[in-house]
Amino acid sequence: MGKFYITTPIYYVNAEPHVGHAYTSIAADALARYHSLKGDDVFFLTGVDEHGANIEKIAAENGVSPQQYCDQIAPAFTNLWKKLNISYNIFLRTTSDLHKRGVAKLLTSLHESGDIYKDKYEGYYCRPCESFYMDKELGEAKACPVHRLPVEWVEEENYFFALSKYENRLLDHINANPEFIQPDSRRNEILSAIESGLKDVSISRASVSWGIPLPFDPTHNIYVWIEALCNYITALDYHETGEKYRKYWPADLHLMGKEITRFHAIIWPAMLMSVDLPLPKQVFGHGWLTKDGKRISKTTGNIIDMDALIDEFGLEAFRYYMMREFSFGNDGDFRRDRFVLRYNADLANDLGNLLNRTLGLVAKHFGVVPDPSTPGEFDSEVKQAACETVNEVYSLMSRRAFDAALEAIWEFVRRVNRYVQQTQVWTLAKSEEDKRRMGTILYNSMEALRTVAVLISPFMPDTANRIRQQMGLDESFNAQGLDTVAQWGGLPSDIPIRKPEPIFPRKDTKSVQSKNADGTEDANLVSFKDFQSLDLRVAEVIAAERVPNADRLLKLRVSIGDTERQIVAGIAENYTPEDLIRKRVILVANLEPATIRGIKSQGMLLAAADGNDLAVATIEKALPAGTRVS
Ligand code: ME8
Questions:
Q1: Which residues have a Cβ under 8 Å from the Cβ of 562 and sit 6 or more positions away?
Q2: I want to staple 317 with a disulfide (CB 3.0 to 4.6 A). Which of 1, 213, 313, 417 is the partner?
Q3: For 220-229, how does the pLDDT look when each residue is reduced to its tens digit (9 = 90+)?
Q4: How many Cα atoms are found within 13 Å in the side-chain-facing hemisphere of 46?
């Protein structure tokens, strides 16, 4: 157990927040909650960046003072964080006294360190970035590399920070601490930027009136980026070296989009070196959310309607999609069809069904959490899988691999669904002895669900609580930490469960499709590559028999040309063994084998089911067994 201080960027108030801002904040929230689960003392900072020429200009366009403008927009951010269930500890505004006092202290120290000097500055400036760019970064069109907008030529007398002096110390630090800048691709970019030479940076603007004055020359305002970076310590009461500062600094993680990593990984650490303060432990620059390949931003206007998605699918599904779909270090395209697909496949199907099926059977046969009195086949595999999943999640979260951590959890969910299938638990209510085994299987499935609830809680806190509630667990279980999931058997028996209700009702893709605003048709699509990964074959049934004591099961031998396979299929209510002999059916030949009622099944037949009516898919021509179906 330790402390974990995590920050998001402080976002500009020049427009309403969008899905890109939500992305960083949801990731930070998931990590903050995850560290709380681990037992760490977490401090989570976010806020808004309110000064600078850009804000001044927009306020003037709106006919209000900059302060009035900031006061109007800042609540749009706090309202969004509330809506997205972001568990921050401080929302810092750079117009606050707290920030101004801390900035004055840090800039005074910087001045005293001898690293500040006055000089004339000229260069290309991008207003939306509040940043100067070098000629070579702009290309022939003289456009900002982030916004693709024309830059302005600015000349003025400024104060400078001697950044170039810190080149070697920065390189040494980055090389000695591979975790300092992540992911590795960003680390390499920063290393080569430093290696190609750092120029001193201007830290003041005589011409910008909306800002914080330099403590040693109030005729200049502090350049907004220099002042904004200070927020990471000003929010901790740095001005009085307060308790929060002493407890939480240095930050464990500064999280941000890749376009501003250089400010955090070069300028900010050099400023801290100059005043002899400890450096943040990690700077992580994540990828961009794009739409049709273009970065989502207020300047391009390709904004995703978060409200509509959340209204339709719920907040938890939105948070899940954001963290599951994209690899955090890379760019990723926000696609509604993928959202719907993940909702139906992962949430409604895999997780929702497991919960519903398990609790449905518990409600029908026991009413309370049953006793795990009768161990049997597959139990230890499920327990082992739980333990492995927890360890995997630990390691993936430390690498900020949210998508892979969620995939590991879902792999476990699917394993438990398979356990329910393999043990055919629903058939075990007949004798008292069988029922004891049924109780054990259901107990294990519920214990697995308790584990899943803890593991998903950083990403989907409400879903975790709803699962626990339906399982009959009181609120004290909501506070269960990660240590409790490593101990299998923590679920108490005999407590009454609640009425099972679907947590993610399936969405009809047709009705979802028709709601597309841009008129394009999104479907529940899989890629052609995914489809091709299925090995479908014509299979000829050469033998068939009933499985004793299993009303629904037939055991088949099928030929797929060179080899034969044994298949267990739940079709006995619709077909006799004789019906099937010599039929040419379609086999999923590369499905992992399963054991059903103690009998190995090496594949699956395709069939269509309409309620209790079921028909096996057959091939109308006598094509050779083993022919590929595509
Ligand atoms: O840069 N995909 O504020 P900002 C992913 N005030 N994340 C995105 C994104 C996208 N398409 N668009 C925005 C500033 N973000 C400064 C920061 S910090 C001392 C000062 C997120 O309002 C991402 O975190 O332009 C990005 O770095 C940040 O919003 C930029 O927010």
A1: 626
A2: 313
A3: 999 999 999 9
A4: 24
- Residue 556: partners with Cβ closer than 8 Å, 6 or more residues away: 541, 543, 544, 566, 567, 568, 569, 580, 605
Tell me, letter by letter, the H, E, C secondary structure of 386-449. HHHHHHHHHHHHHCCCHHHHHHHHHHHHHHHHHHHHHHCHHHCCCCHHHHHHHHHHHHHHHHHH
Cβ of residue 49 lying under 6 Å from some atom of ligand 1: yes
Assess whether the C-beta atom of 21 lies below 6 angstroms from ligand 1: yes
> For residue 308, is pLDDT > 80?
yes
288 lines ligand 1 (CB under 6 A): yes
37 lines ligand 1 (CB under 6 A): no
137-163 pLDDT per residue, tens: 888 888 998 888 889 888 888 999 999
Scan for tokens 């909501």, then name that residue.
Answer: 478
SS (H, E, C) 318-331: HHHHHHHHCCCCCC
Rounded to two decimals, the pTM is: 0.81
Ligand 1 centroid–CA 278 distance in Å is 25
In total, the chain counts a number of residues equal to 630
Task: Provide the 8-state DSSP code for 113.
Answer: T
**452 CB near ligand 1 (under 6 Å):** no
| CA 268 to ligand 1: nearest atom | 19
